[in-house]
Amino acid sequence: MRFDQCTNGNIFMHGWTLEQCVMSEHDKAILRELAKKMRSYAEQPEEQEKFQLWRDHNDLKETRPLIYLDLENGWNELLPQEFTCQCEGEMAQEWEMWLHKELIYAEKIKCDKPIEAKFYIPYMAHDTMWGIDKKVIGDAHSGEAYTWESPITDEMMEEDVDMSTIIKTPQITIDWEATNAFTAIAHDVFDGILEVERRHWWWWGMELTHPYVDLRGFENMLVDFYDYPEKMHEILELFTRGYEAKLDFLEQNHLLTPNTGNCYVGSGGLGLTNDLNSGAAVPNSAMDIWGFHESQETGEVSPEMFKEFILPYQLRLAKRFGLNYYGCCEGLDRRFEYVKQIPRLRRVSVSQWANIPLMSEMLGGDYVFCHKVSPTDIAVPQIDEEYIRRRLHEVLVKCKACGNHVELIMKDNHTIANTPYNAYRWVELAREEVARVYG
What we know:
Elements: H1 25-42, H2 45-58, E1 66-69, H3 75-82, H4 90-109, E2 118-121, E3 125-127, E4 135-137, E5 147-149, H5 154-158, E6 172-174, H6 176-190, E7 195-198, H7 209-216, H8 218-227, H9 229-252, E8 290-293, H10 303-318, E9 323-326, H11 336-339, E10 345-350, H12 356-363, E11 368-373, H13 385-402, E12 405-410, H14 420-438
Protein name: Uroporphyrinogen decarboxylase (URO-D) domain-containing protein
Organism: Butyricicoccus pullicaecorum 1.2
InterPro entries: UROD/MetE-like_sf
């Protein structure tokens, strides 16, 4: 069975082939019982309160700080201890896992992620991306270190190769026969219990420097700012045009899916808001949804180089979206004077590499303060509760003083030391510190 290491626990990143679209009566009965249990949680008043809390929060209304935990690779350690698969079919097993994740959120994690009576399915689709692949050395999906051989060499940069002959515009193709087949099965299983809705991520974000590093290598990228500035601009221009073409295709074919509901956006947190066209089942354009932009690979590049090489392309992409989220692991305090030029910027990442007190002052009440709490806090067999409390307390006191719209996000969990209790306890500690500071 494929453990889907997906954000928010409940976004399938891949569909199923026609051969996998099989559902026995045995598996259907198991899934329906789990769906009924999930619906019973979704109907609780506190779940609707969470929805409203996120909407107010993202609409920059005053709320208490929100608490969100996304286990990512930690699911690979938690699920074997908390989940015993009963289904027999491959696709049914993955749907069963999906439902159990939601039940674990409701019964054990208990953060501010709402439970809703919906079952999300993707498209069975293929994206050619940039038409050129890196050679990965090691297992990139195991949570361990790996490296890669970058396909664009120094010789290609020096010989003035036309990069458009190497980097191609992404092309999306959809296997409609398979997509319609598993969609029909989902309706057969869940209708009357859960609403079935398509939700697909055609990109994680409008990444520019991540694919650049994939194709050139990290150290090469840092040197390219000096040695091959024209080539660097050429490559970034091709990426930008590629994303623009992909957005055009998705808009013209009505394939965008809304991220303004109970959906993970950016590098953490949920996209619930009343300030976008949240009622649209199919967004009319990217102006109805959140965009996401970051450049964590250039975290140690000077603000001026960021402004010259990266920001102009990000501005072109960001203008397509109704609201925007900026940042991931990079510390933004040194470059925020440029980042804040992003149009309709609403959510801003405040990572462990940022000057957190300074970011608190910079953001004030004008943006959502998306604070990435250190995942190392729960990556050890015995967590240090007093240390966790102290760190959270310091941040919350400063955020309250600065009027921030703050959320505490525990993510990037490559391990939870095979101790699910760490995750559950962190949420409890965060709630207690929020209560201490905010009452």
